[in-house]
Design goal:
- By secondary structure, the protein is of the alpha/beta class.
- It folds into 2 domains: 11-160, 3-Layer(aba) Sandwich (Aspartate Aminotransferase, domain 2); 165-267, Aspartate Aminotransferase, domain 1 (Alpha-Beta Complex).
- Helix content is 34%, strand content 14%.
- It has 7 helices and 8 strands, in the order H-E-H-E-E-E-H-H-H-E-E-H-E-E-H.
- It has helices at 11-17, 64-76, 128-131, 147-160, 165-186, 213-227, 251-267, and strands at 47-51, 80-84, 108-111, 123-126, 190-196, 199-204, 232-234, 240-243.
- The chain has a 4-stranded mixed sheet with strand order 1-2-3-4.
- Strand 5 (190-196) and strand 6 form a beta hairpin.
- The radius of gyration is 19 Å and the shape is globular.
């Protein structure tokens, strides 16, 4: 369980992740199992709820063997394997879902954010057999089945499934990764880059290799003020720069962002 992950702010789920004083939030709600949050996205409720990589925790991707081992452990003990693709789903990792990178077959898939291109929308996917176990009327809400949200989601999915769209996303991801790798070779402030597709974390460190949130903050400010490039941070120390450009980002925009980062790294000590 990663303290710096973020699974929402309801008390039941906040007790799993919020980085607060020990007595602020009581142990997690009965029936919830703490676990590694899968990057990208996956988790556990009455089962093992996992994310394919951390989000707020720094975009650290969970290793494939770990995920498959966890999936097998769930099967052995009759635990549902729930993949949280809220942040990593719908092309963010250069595959439709992050689980596709490791050929995982979750029992339940939860989705939101990119599903409707920013329109408030979320969904749960599972087999007919599993979904039939809901008692009639037990799963609902005031805004469930919003027609505009559903229309936005269907339009988004149509675009994602267009010939060549995901191929272009992968090309942009390669360009971003190659550019960040080049910067890491030339700037000691970069410890490493990690993540998947267009969901990348860059670790910023000081002269002795320790996380450097102060330098990270100044780098981000420099990029905004001098280059008009807005990037945000995450991670347990606030020293991870996260790269999450829109899937329609152009080559020119990727290059401009990398150039802004390069300039900031050269001028910020």
């Amino acid at each position: 369980m990663l303290i710096t992950s973020s699974w929402g702010r309801l008390l039941s789920v906040a007790s799993l992740w919020m980085n607060l004083e020990p007595d602020t939030i009581r142990p997690s709600q009965p029936g919830l199992v703490q676990g590694y949050r899968l990057g990208g996205g996956q988790r556990v409720r009455s089962g093992r709820h996992n994310r394919h990589g951390t989000g707020e925790g720094g975009y650290v991707d969970a290793p494939g063997p770990f995920l498959h081992g966890l999936r097998e452990r769930c099967r052995q003990h009759g635990i549902l394997f729930i993949a949280d693709e809220v942040q990593s789903g719908f092309g963010r990792t250069a595959e439709l879902f992050a689980v596709d990178h490791h050929d995982l077959d979750p029992d339940i898939l939860v989705m939101a954010k990119g599903i409707a291109s920013g329109f408030p929308m979320s969904a749960i996917g599972a087999s007919d057999e599993l979904m039939a176990r809901w008692p009639t009327g037990s799963h609902g809400g005031t805004y469930g089945g919003n027609p505009m949200g559903c229309a936005a989601a269907l339009a988004t999915i149509d675009v994602l499934c267009e010939d060549g769209f995901m191929g272009t996303v992968r090309e942009r991801a390669v360009r971003l990764w190659e550019g960040l790798a080049d910067l890491a070779d030339r700037h000691d402030a970069i410890a490493e880059n990690h993540g998947l597709g267009l969901m990348v974390g860059t670790e910023i460190v000081d002269s002795v290799g320790a996380p450097d949130p102060a330098r990270t903050k100044v780098l981000l400010a420099h990029m905004v003020e001098e280059s008009r490039v807005v990037v945000i941070s995450c991670g347990p120390f606030g020293s991870t720069i996260r790269w999450i450009p829109p899937l329609v980002v152009t080559e020119t925009q990727v290059d401009e962002a990398l150039a802004a980062f390069d300039t900031a790294l050269g001028e910020v000590t």
